[in-house]
Hints:
6 helices
Amino acid sequence: MSNLNRKLTILLHIENYCEEISDTFKFFGKNFETFESNAIFRNSISMPVFQICELSKLLDKEYHEYIDQTKNEVPWKAIIRMRERFAHHYIDMDNKIIFDTALNDIPILMEFISKEIKKEY
């Protein structure tokens, strides 16, 4: 697989997880209390957020230049740090941060990723 195809594949997976988060909010609503009290809702948001973080780390490993060029549009380093928290300090994960990230940051990321995918096609 060429580097371009690999980057595009990663971006497509990130886009898919962003859409899953959007669909989950459509299903459950956007209420934090429901998120905090409903494990199905919480897990349906948390896992795609974690996967986005994991995929972003793959971008960082292979596309340092890409990350540097787009860092003003997407807080890649913060996303990758969030992945570290999910993976190694999950007991300290704050539901409010996960919810706010999914609600406020993921739509911005989704818009950015969609534009990037269009550039690649």
